[in-house]
Amino acid sequence: MAAANLNQDFVLTWGDGRAKILQNGQLLTLSLDKTSGSGFKSKNQYLFGKIDMQLKLLSSLGSAHDEIDFEFLGNLSGDPYILHTNVFTRGKGNREQQFYLWFDPTKDFHTYSVLWNSLSIIFSVDGTPIREFKNLESKGIPYPKSQPMWIYSSLWNADDWATRGGLVKADWSQAPFTASYRNFNARACVWTSGSSSCSAAGSTNNSWLSQSLDGSGQGRIKWVQKNYMIYNYCTDTKRFPQGPPPECSMA
């Protein structure tokens, strides 16, 4: 199957020429220098989906809306990169989990995936699940299921907080910094004028809509979280002295 043409799926939104779609739509690059970063967004909105994107970093630094976040935080040269995840519902986030990656994300492309359906949100790296946020609405926990979302990606300077809490500043002599994207794949419900493509007649191949983690997947999440998780909001007693958010004891 031919790789998707990124021109069909995304629009470059800011950066004054620092964002580019190259190789006949097969590669998208974002660039950051001392003046500006850059970004893009999807042409479509989605309400549930299985979204995959291959991404290669090159020294990158990392409202009542819903949001599902993959972020890469900057580092000292030679230190592992930190993958930062978060889930916002109705404008409220504060559900951060952070992981060291078990590879150098600047050396090659790796696939970062989000599976979002009515059961759960599953974050995966190269097919390995690293985090699950379950739908616990029946227990009173808000879950993103009614607001369609665009896909956004940007490369920007966050050295006031993201690089070891702002301790490490960007070395602009190494600029421009670049992130490269390819092989976007969306098995998803496109939301147009108040209706979902998944409810259309003839809509097929939507097995992901009911997909959840099996025992093997649960085991792999435990392995990643035991060996590579470096921050979990559920165990941050300084931040939540009255006790962690309720979903932490239910998940």
Automatic annotation (TrEMBL):
One protein family per Pfam: Glyco_hydro_16
Chain segments annotated as coiled-coil in the UniProt record: none
Cellular localization per UniProt: Secreted, Cell wall; Secreted, Extracellular space, Apoplast
Alphabetical keyword list: Apoplast, Cell wall, Cell wall biogenesis/degradation, Disulfide bond, Glycoprotein, Glycosidase, Hydrolase, Secreted, Signal, Transferase
UniProt GO BP: cell wall biogenesis; cell wall organization; xyloglucan metabolic process
Domain GH16: 1-181
InterPro entries noted in UniProt: Beta-glucanase-like (IPR000757), Beta-glucanase/XTH (IPR044791), ConA-like_dom_sf (IPR013320), GH16_AS (IPR008263), XET_C (IPR010713), XTH (IPR016455)
Catalytic residues as annotated in Swiss-Prot or TrEMBL: 67 (nucleophile), 71 (proton donor)
GO CC aspect terms: apoplast
Enzyme Commission no: 2.4.1.207
CDD domains reported in the protein's UniProt record: GH16_XET
GO molecular function: hydrolase activity, hydrolyzing O-glycosyl compounds; xyloglucan:xyloglucosyl transferase activity
Glycosylation sites: 75
PROSITE patterns: GH16_1, GH16_2
Description of post-translational modifications: Contains at least one intrachain disulfide bond essential for its enzymatic activity.
Function (record text): Catalyzes xyloglucan endohydrolysis (XEH) and/or endotransglycosylation (XET). Cleaves and religates xyloglucan polymers, an essential constituent of the primary cell wall, and thereby participates in cell wall construction of growing tissues.
The family this protein is said to belong to: Belongs to the glycosyl hydrolase 16 family.
Name listed for the protein in its UniProt record: Xyloglucan endotransglucosylase/hydrolase
Native organism: Salix purpurea
